[in-house]
Amino acid sequence: GQNIDQPTEMTATEGAIVQINCTYQTSGFNGLFWYQQHAGEAPTFLSYNVLDGLEEKGRFSSFLSRSKGYSYLLLKELQMKDSASYLCAVRDRSSNYQLIWGAGTKLIIKP
Amino acid sequence: NAGVTQTPKFRILKIGQSMTLQCTQDMNHNYMYWYRQDPGMGLKLIYYSVGAGITDKGEVPNGYNVSRSTTEDFPLRLELAAPSQTSVYFCASSYSFGGNQPQHFGDGTRLSIL
Questions:
Q1: In chain B, what percentage of residues exceed pLDDT 70?
Q2: What integer pLDDT is reported at residue B2 of this predicted model?
Q3: Any idea of the CA torsion for B41, A50, A83, B34, to the nearest 10 degrees?
Q4: Distance of CA A2 to the CA centre of its chain
Q5: What percent of chain A has pLDDT over 90?
Q6: In a mutagenesis test of the B interface, which of A4, A36, A45, A95 is the best target, namely the one with the most B β-carbons within 10 Å?
Q7: Which residues make beta-bridge pairs with A99?
Q8: What is the average per-residue pLDDT within B44-73?
Q9: Averaged pLDDT for residues B77-83
Q10: What is the DSSP letter of B73?
Q11: B-chain residue closest to A49, CA distance
Q12: Strand runs (DSSP E) across chain A, as ranges?
């Protein structure tokens, strides 16, 4: 079956680094997306991985290991505005290339 | 630069009532989606469309209907509203299914069925 797991909640300190993990089980992996969602708002796209390795975008990086069914989102130099939920989504060939979404990780940033 | 626009933003319905959630996008995207988001759960796909006149069921289509008469508009219809349909509904669009093209989301409709 299809399954995506993320930690429910994480806490980090302003200025620090945090890593949010995502593990997945799908039968037809075709890419992985990370989205950010502030409370009461729409999800917004952060990053995309389809090949193994690290993709870097400013303070945010995302890593993928297809053999392990594992990804992480790395946030550096944390700012208070980074307090949000981070959603991991996997595109699955066996679901007509639709996205399967994790429940999201709520990140709380403390001063 | 409007992107994806959803109306209404909030709505309260009584059990058994019906309503239409509106969604329009101005990015000329062929692909559009309706999701629902419940607390503690991932987004669930209700219906999607690959172009005008073509729609298909997602993971949780029961109790909903859609139509796609134009590229821009993708309304979601709730018939005989039930308390289980209390949720936040998001409409999204994308340039394609594949590659690195992300889905762009509207601001959501918060729907309560009482």
A1: 99
A2: 81
A3: -40
A4: 17
A5: 91
A6: A45
A7: A91
A8: 96
A9: 95
A10: B
A11: B100
A12: 3-5, 9-13, 18-25, 29-37, 44-49, 53-57, 60-65, 70-75, 84-92, 98-101, 105-110
Q: List pLDDT tens digits, range A16-34.
A: 999 999 999 998 999 999 9
CA–CA separation, A110 vs A108, rounded Å?
A: 6
Most B CBs within 10 A among A26, A41, A64, A101, hence the mutation to make, goes to: A101
Residue A1: pLDDT band with limits 50, 70, 90 = low
How many residue pairs from chains A and B have C-beta atoms closer than 8 A? 51
**Which A residues 13-42 touch B at CB under 8 Å?**
30-31, 33, 35, 41-42
Amino acid in position A31: G
B10-13 and B109-113 beta bridge pairing:
parallel
Cα gap B101→B83, rounded to integer Å: 35
CB of B74 closer than 8 Å to CB of B23: yes
Q: How far is CA B18 from the centre of its chain?
A: 15
Q: Which of the four pLDDT bands, split at 50, 70 and 90, describes residue A96? A: confident
